[in-house]
Amino acid sequence: MRERRRQRRRLRKGERGHLIDLQKGQVAKVLGLHNDSAAVRRRLFDMGITSGVEIKIKKIAPLGDPIDIELRGYELCIRKKDMETIDIEVIE
Amino acid sequence: MRIALVGNQNSGKTSLFNALTGAHQKVGNWPGVTIERKEGRIKGSKHTLIDLPGIYSLSPYSPEEEVSRQYAVEEKPDIIINIIDVTSLERSLYLTTQLLELDCKVIIALNMSDLLDKKGIKIDSKALEEALHTTVVEVSALKGTGIDKLIKIINENQVLDNVHLPIYATDIEKSIKKIEAELEGSHQRFVAVKLLERDPRYQKSATDLDQQLIKEIEEKYGLDTEEIIANQRYDFITELRKKVCTFGPRKVTITDRLDKVFLNKFAALPIFAAIMFLIYFLAVGVVGSATVGWIEELMEGLSEWVSGALENGGASEWSISLVVDGVIAGVGAILSFVPQLIILFLCICLLETTGYMSRITFFLDRLFRKIGLSGKALIPFIVGTGCSVPGVMAARAIENAEEKKMTVILTPFIPCSAKLPIIALFAGHFFGPNSGIVSASLYFFAVIVIILLAYLLRKFVFKGENSSYISELPEYKLPNFKYLFRDVSEKTLAFIKRAGTIILLCSIVIWVLLSFNWKFEYGVEVADSILASIGNALAWLFYPMIGHWSWEATVSAVQGLVAKEQVVSSMAIIAGLSEDVTEGHLILAEGGAFGYFNSVSAYAFMVFNLFSAPCFGALGAMKRELGGTKAMLKAAFFQTGIAWVLAILVFLVGSLLTGGF
User: For A79, which residue in chain B has the nearest alpha carbon?
Assistant: First the structure.
């Protein structure tokens, strides 16, 4: 249960990083994902996190994790751990 | 015909099921309300409708989703009604495109939500029908519009044939065709796509040709086929959505505004605690104290009237005692708690249908992950405040097997509605004006114990991996008052019915065991009765937590296995029969059979009844979810052991603090 906390980077428009780096108010495009768990990876695809989809950070849980993101017109909650596995490019 | 209802979680399947069949299945506003398939008959027809747990794809993630995949693919329904929540059109169509790969006719039921107008979304269902070559019907499961049209289409079988619309890039479609050519049996296109994706379920039938095709594709795209298929499926949907659906300007929704409060960094936890506190405070404190007085008078009047009437009618002494001291005392003791239960059921139903419950899982996930559970474990815990049986079953939606087992074992610790009479009885008598606070304190006591035990279990028993938390956050909804009323009255009636059946039967058995000795002589002192001797054999177990040798409390607590409220019923009968002169129905009256209880031993006894093995109904549910009698018994002994230790601790610490020694 020990967690490795990666330092978050502040991304500017056009920069690439992971979904975890995205700030509230920014919009990103998904480039791909590389989750260690095949089942979780599949689930993320199924929920619409595929190449090219636009994602926004919507709400952050009071304890800081998980995070509610908006994509494809709906809201999805995922943990920071899984957000680290999603590659993005900031577009706005 | 057999017609299956398939759709995403929380898309309104069960509401549509209820509208189509006239049934009253449980609905809620969180993903995963339905965990088992349910069957019904479509109104005015012979067609069977099957309600299935919500799925996002035909590659299921959790065990209850497998039920749906299995039914849709392997049991070959004649028609699939694919319900789509229009507010999440793209994600819903992802499942639709998979269903259209099956050899099955598909009707799309567009569940038009009120939110649609508010969000400024417009959708052209005719265009959708043409683009997908499948029948599309607009319905509103909640308002009941479009239902007749849907039934008519089914009855007249006006469903468009499934043409297996190509949706992928040409090279992928070509490969699918090649794989299909090798296949026999049904769902060839579906199976071909699964083979291409390397779905583990179909790996056994994979051939060299498949491997060759996969290799070619993956080299060309530089991605694995699973990702390519998912990408292209969503690409097709994104294009489709642009054609059939337009968004208005984005507005801040009511949900966003409410979440600013309910998910506020500082306020979220206090608000949650306040809500849970309020539920118990309202039920036991406010409503309980208001009703307990006149209900007691009512029961007293009733038993006087009945015994008078029986005496006048010439009934024998024992039959009067059976009716008055057995049945009326036992069943009446339970029925007097109906007002408290109505409040509890009402509050739980509100939590479940408004969408707040999903928020609880969201903001407590972090905390629960620390102790080795998923935030999703909160759903069983909250459903369990009504009844442990559906609570334990709700644990099925937890994907991770270890987390699920822990949740199943811990859910019965939450005070369920049947334990409320025990709490209300003791808290009302010993804590008077503070009874609401005391009963809420028991709830939080249970939560703390659950957190501690989860941590320990995770550390020493279930050491497996932690699961992920991927869940959609539904919009808030106003409760549907018709449903609210029906849900609360159904649960209340079920409780009353139980009082009239199981509790009635038990009351008679208890009366017999109390009125006879082993030689089967009637009219013995209760202390010489069969029940007393059984209780005396086990009373040592309870001595350390109540500080008194009491066969009465012992036998009553054991009866909690039948139904938790039976504890109160048994105490009422014993107290009544022990009295030389019946002085109303004050179970805990001084000088009576339970007169030795004080506030400390009362709290300890409540704690024991709260945490010990649940009733047989819940044990049955635990057996199903844990996968066997042995695992269930282990869990039950674990729970009872914890209850025993905690009760003794409470008694010892409480006695020390109050100087009771």
Answer: B469
Same domain, B327 and B178: no
Q: B231 to chain A: which residues are within 8 Å by CB?
A: 50-52
- Kindly state whether B471 is in contact with chain A, defined as any CB-CB distance less than 8 angstroms: yes
- Sorted by sequence, the CB contacts under 8 Å of residue B239 that are 6+ apart come out as none
| Segments of chain B scoring below 50 in pLDDT | 581-584
Tens digits of residue pLDDT in B344-355: 999 999 998 999
pLDDT of residue B581: 47
* Residues B37, B48: Cα–Cα separation, whole Å: 12
Q: Which residues contact A32 (CB under 8 A, 6 or more apart)?
A: A51, A86, A87, B223, B227
Instruction: Give the model's confidence band at A1: pLDDT under 50 very low, under 70 low, under 90 confident, else very high.
Output: very low
Show which of B110, B128, B155 is a domain's final residue: B155
| Co-location of B287 and B143 in the same domain | no
B192 shares a domain with B142: no
Q: Is B255 inside any structural domain?
A: no
Using one digit for the tens of pLDDT, what is the confidence trace for B89-101? 999 999 999 999 9
Q: Chain A to chain B, count of Cβ pairs less than 8 Å apart? A: 119
Claim to verify: residue B226 and residue B347 sit in the same structural domain: no
Whether B259 is covered by a domain: the verdict is no
User: How far is B195 from B225, CA to CA, in rounded Å?
Assistant: 10
- What pLDDT score was predicted for residue B52? 92
Nearest-CA distance from A89 to chain B in Å? 17
β pairing state of B38-41 and B105-111: unpaired
Alpha-carbon distance A16 to A29, whole Å? 9
Q: Tell me: do B423 and B335 sit in the same domain.
A: yes
Check CB contact of A27 with chain B, cutoff 8 Å: no
- Chosen for mutation from B30, B253, B361, B366 (greatest number of chain A CBs closer than 10 Å) is B366
Asked whether the bond before A66 is cis by omega within 30 degrees of 0, the reply is yes
Cα(B378)–Cα(B365) distance, rounded to whole angstroms?
9
Do B191 and B150 lie in one domain? The reply is no
What domain count does chain B have? 3
Closest-CA distance of chain B to residue A9, Å: 22
For residue B373, the Cα-to-chain-centroid distance in whole angstroms is: 17
Q: What ipTM is given for this predicted complex?
A: 0.92
Contact residues, chain B, for A44 at CB < 8 Å = 470
B300 and B192 within one domain:
no
Predicted confidence at residue B479, as pLDDT, reads 86
Summarize pLDDT for B368-412 with one digit per residue, the tens: 888 888 888 889 999 999 899 999 998 988 888 888 999 999 999
Among the partner residues B57, B247, B468, nearest to A82 by beta-carbon distance:
B468
* A82 touches B at CB < 8 Å: yes
- Does some domain include residue B168? no
| In-domain check, residue B169 | no
Closest residue to A62, CB basis, from B223, B263, B399: B263
Q: Which domain holds residue B507?
A: 269-658
Whether residue A32 lies within 8 A of chain B, CB to CB, comes out as yes
Q: What is the pLDDT of residue B587?
A: 81
**Ordered domains of chain A (ranges, CATH):** 16-90 (2.30.30.90)
Q: Residue A2's pLDDT is what?
A: 44
